[in-house]
Amino acid sequence: MTADPHSRRCAIEARDVVLSFGKTPALRGASMSVVSGEIVAIMGPSGSGKSTLLHCLAGILVPASGEIYFDGRRVDTVGETERSTLRRDHFGFVFQFGQLVPELTAEENVALPLLLGGARREAALKQTRPWFERLGLDGLERRRSGELSGGEAQRVALARGLVGRPEVLFADEPTGSLDSLTGEQVMDLLVGVAREQGTTVIIVTHEGRVAAYADREVMVRDGKVTSFVADPVLS
Amino acid sequence: MLPGMSVPLTLLGLLEREPSHGYDLKRDYDTYFGRGRPLPFGQVYATLGRLARDGKVVIGEVEPGVGPERKRYVITELGATEVETWLAEPVEAEPHLQTVLFAKVVLALMLGRPAEKYLDAQRSAHLHRMRELTETKRSGSLVDALLADHGLFHLEADLRWIDTTIARLDALAAAVRS
Which of A71, A188, B88, B149 has an alpha carbon 20 to 30 Å from A21's alpha carbon atom? Predict the structure, then answer.
């Protein structure tokens, strides 16, 4: 199901966001908005600012100027503690290299957001179990990240990103470290679960085949969103 | 028919599986290769006639029955060799340098028109098509996915070309105007 931008509320929005790293400008007035349940790809060349924009939308980075809204509430003006709570309670994350905690087993990695949210260990681990079946990871619950293939590790990371049923899933090059077929399996699962749960997804990617899973794409170039096409009507 | 496909060689290839009637060949061709553009019966029988004339197929026993005679076509050794040669020979690695898109970009730069805007629109059109192909993959058979993948990888190559071209537009504009 594709979200209809005209009938759904705005889930997350960046307005005229500016951010520099030292003297290097990363975002120069970037604006975009995503409606609830929509899957949007942020594309652009290396160094264009696409990951920085994702981090600002997710409340990881705070822009020097401009505004970030989640569900109608301002995100960039609140303190780190509140942003941290917001990320934990409402957002899920998947990164390029999974970034699993190597000392923990796969199921402990998946349970991590629940444990950080105050869930008891047994309850949290129980909640992870359906995800192993759902993502084709049966039997891998007790393995550590070093004992998983790249595709398996990324599916564990995906389960971790989704276990708390986040309203928004942020994915930064989620298939960047995988071969085509494995990447496709991860994207099939990511999009399938997101559509089923009505999760809003924002994916940073430089790959057209990954962006093609999204409802639409935005292009970031030189720190600005240059094209913002909701539904291109082209001959 | 898919662009660039050879109907005679594809029919020969289908015949190499087993001797078949024209009707069965058409059905299999349409199923695997027609992609919404079925092969007309007339073309099937005309092609089989030419293949028979050239010694690549022979007509086996004619089956009696009501209605038109049912001829069973059988591939010959010459026909099988031709299929083998065709399959083994790589398709020309066409660099596609003279595509419409290339011509549009160069002309736009020559004329001082907004090439970047045109290329952005093309990227959107490509991604629009890639979304359709991705949906075909998600909802179709594995054979459909195979063809969709071919399209997706080619469109992605175009996207890379579009991005590289956009990154070089200033230098390209200077080159075509000098």
Answer: A71
